[in-house]
Amino acid sequence: MAFAINVSVSKRDEDGPLDFGKRDQLRHVLLLSVVLLFQLAVSTKVALATTGLEPGQSPHGALKIPCGNCHTPDEWMPVRPKPQFDHNKTGFPIRGMHTTVPCEDCHINRVFSKASTQCQDCHFDPHKRRNSVGCAICHTEAGWSVSSHGFIESPEHTDRFPLFGAHAAVECYSCHKVGTIGRFNRQGLSVFCNSCHMPAFRGVKNPNHVALGYSTDCLGCHHSFDTWAGATQPPGLLGGMRRR
Question: How many Å apart are CA 141 and CA 61, to the nearest integer?
Fold first, then answer.
């Protein structure tokens, strides 16, 4: 360091030899540089001791990409608005609304491979786990609006009430109404026809189901899930059937 000082103080500028004021300024600058370098070395050593990392070791585990793909030369945080990282290679592609989520919202742990890929680990479950944890059966990355894609053939709707015929085209909210007990809890809704179709039962006039005393067990006469047409009256009944 003394060599640097000797060189600096012996240098001449356009006005001639350096005066004592400039020499003092140079000495202060050099001294400050030494102090800053010492502080940097100490802080680096403390940081490494705190994290348990070796010099040159990434805090992100086995991630093998240049630091500059995510960080800037100015500071470590915040990271670049659009990090140069292909998330499709991780087994969890970023699509839909996930593309606008800041990295740190999911990657709380700096070892990124430890981030969970399960919906319920990030999102509140309003169904209280009563509909299983397979959120993707009803929802997509495009939003929370319910989608029947992948749901009709799933075990979640083939045990108590399979979606055959016209039922497969009905919007979910037509049956799972707001205010319904256990709105999307499969055990909270009735599987009997009259729980949804009583307005149609009361409104039909040809034949007049109410006046003729027809049963509210729709399957006694209606054998298709595609249409109300083609109903048959059970053999041996001359008139209407008593309602149960």
Answer: 28
Q: What's the DSSP call for residue 81?
A: S
Q: Is the confidence at residue 143, as pLDDT, over 70?
A: yes
Do 212 and 205 form a contact (C-beta atoms < 8 A)?
no
Burial class (CB in 10 A: 0-12, 13-18, 19+), 107: middle
Q: What is the pLDDT of residue 227?
A: 86
Name the residue type at position 129: R
pTM here is 0.45
Closest Cα partner for 222 from 189, 197, 239, 202?
Answer: 197
Look up residue 242 and give its DSSP letter: P
CB burial of 152-175 (b: ≥16 within 10 Å; e: otherwise) equals eeeebbeeeeebeeebeeeebeeb
Q: How far apart are CA 225 and CA 176, in angstroms?
A: 19
Give the three-class secondary structure for 132. strand
Q: Which residues pair with 123 in a beta bridge?
A: none
